[in-house]
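Moderator note: this is an archived Q&A kept for reference. The question asked for a predicted structure of one protein chain; the sequence and the answer are reproduced below.
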Amino acid sequence: MKVATWNVNGIRARQTQFCDWLERDRPDVVCLQELKAEASQVPARCAHADYHVYWHGLRAYSGVSLHVRKGLFPTAPAFSHPDFDMEARIVQARFDRLVLASVYVPNGGKNYDAKLDFVRRLSAWTRSLHDQGLELVLCGDMNITRADMDVHPRERKPGAIGQRPEERELFAQLLGEHLIDVGRALDPDNEHVFTWWAPWRDLRARNIGWRIDYILASPGIAAQASQCIVLADVGTSDHAPVMMTAG
């Protein structure tokens, strides 16, 4: 099974790139963030017939989607939102004992306290799923770097939102013992893995970026992962897709 996540920074601007990428890599589960479009504004070509798709967006702001290949599971998904959803930032689907979710954590620039509260509630939700005996694959743009190694040395800025100690502590609480950062688990010492680059001074081409997009999975699922890579060649968003191959 291939599970992928991508902050597209506008689905309408990235529609051709999105379709080309789906055709090339054929992921089974796709989580998108920052759609910047209501469901009615999403181009029809993005609703691929071989996926169950749910678009959860706002006009020109935020938004997430979840795409599950038809036939991947015995039943069709029932899409829903945890009760802490705000600004169209999370969608989930449950299949028996498995929950898949696409999430877009606020960047915190406009309301830092709201970001911290969202992450706290996200963490409580993941713990609740674990306590119910459910497995989870949580994909998305967390807008937090886990450690200094997840930021290029030239981009490390004490006190910068996304790098603050209290954010990283909340991320550690989110993971706890019930979620694994699959990309880092498979490539623990690589200091050159980034998923977002500021859109100036050729930072993407020079790979001077931040790692803020993640695939987090329950330990049993993470143990089946053979690969979790950044697809830096895909698209013109300021983020690159991340894709896990498991099973």
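Archived answer notes: The radius of gyration is 17 Å.
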